[in-house]
Automatic annotation (TrEMBL):
Molecular function terms from GO: ATP binding
CDD domains, alphabetized: ABC_MJ0796_LolCDE_FtsE
Domain ABC transporter as annotated: residue spans: 16-253
Domain of life: Bacteria
Organism: Saccharothrix lopnurensis
Name listed for the protein in its UniProt record: ABC transporter ATP-binding protein
Cited Gene3D superfamilies: P-loop containing nucleotide triphosphate hydrolases
UniProt entry keywords in alphabetical sequence: ATP-binding, Nucleotide-binding, Transport
InterPro entries in the record: AAA+_ATPase, ABC_transporter-like_ATP-bd, ABC_transporter-like_CS, ABC_transpr_LolD-like, MacB-like_ATP-bd, P-loop_NTPase
Length: 253
């Protein structure tokens, strides 16, 4: 299937490139450095998990990568577009068209059907992808027989699959997931993680996921650890045991 712009088809351009990103909230005595000079590339078509103790900067990292928060200094490139210099209107368009969000709490619209929820970003004006893409997404998340249902008629795992399909519908540069299995039981949570893995492997999407759970993080290609706002190492092809061991070394989770 075609991509939307030539720059985004270049494998050499990472999905997200953060360079010396610092985020300071407040000022003077009350200043809190939430991110402290973070430099990282998220490879296109990769699955990256972000872990770290409470307050280490995970949400701030995700928000800066998504253009939801502006860094105090440093640069964030999304598929080759510098976010820090965009005005609010263009930033909103980038978030709508090129980033998919998946939250712990699903955030579906109760009065809309599954199909309308999935297509919501397109109804709100996002550029239409290749016509073959939406049916492909619906099929991939296994919801073809639920399209006329309302969210309340679905299980938690099915609702999260609707949210994942909605995040994918614009064929974004990156899907950002904030504790996507936090509200699910372990079996349903595994199904959602398998789906995220399948989306990366089968459609070449890029996923960035914040999680506290070593098992969830083990579905990623790499785990990056944050501590006090800075990168504190990474693990490639991580096993749950290796992740848990790293967490135990720091003993502050
Ligand atoms: N809007 C804000 N104003 C002031 N301080 C903030 C704000 N947002 C975050 N912080 C501070 O920045 C630091 C990093 O917060 P962040 O939410 O990114 O951490 P986290 O790793 O996601 O934590 P948790 O796992 O508890 O969700 C914390 O010290 C937090 O108190």
């Amino acid at each position: 299937m075609e991509t939307k712009a030539p720059e985004r088809a270049t494998a050499a351009v990472p999905a997200v490139r953060m360079s010396s990103v610092t985020k300071v909230y407040g000022s003077g005595d009350r200043a809190v450095t939430a991110l402290d000079g973070v430099t990282i590339d998220l490879p296109r078509g990769g699955f990256t998990a972000v872990m770290g103790p409470s307050g280490s900067g995970k949400s701030t990292f995700l928000h800066c990568a998504a253009g939801l928060d502006r860094p105090t200094s440093g640069s964030v490139l999304l598929g080759g577009t510098e976010l820090s210099t965009l005005d609010e209107k263009r930033l909103t368009a980038v978030r709508r068209d090129r980033i998919g969000f998946v939250f712990q709490a699903y955030n579906l619209v109760p009065s809309l059907t599954v199909e309308q929820n999935i297509r919501l970003p397109l109804l709100l004006g996002a550029g239409a992808p290749d016509p073959a893409w939406p049916p492909h997404v619906v099929e991939r998340v296994g919801l073809a027989d639920r399209l006329g249902h309302r969210p309340a008629q679905l299980s938690g795992g099915q609702q999260q699959r609707v949210a994942i399909a909605r995040a994918l519908i614009t064929r974004p540069d990156v899907v950002l997931a904030d504790e996507p299995t936090g509200a699910l039981d372990s079996r349903t949570g595994r199904q959602v993680l398998e789906l995220l893995r399948d989306i990366v492997d089968g459609t070449g999407q890029t996923v960035l996921m914040v999680t506290h759970d070593p098992l969830a993080a083990s579905y990623a290609d790499q785990v990056v650890f944050l501590r006090d706002g800075g990168l504190a190492g990474s693990l490639a092809d991580p096993s749950p045991e290796a992740i848990a061991e790293r967490m135990a070394q720091w003993g502050e989770w």
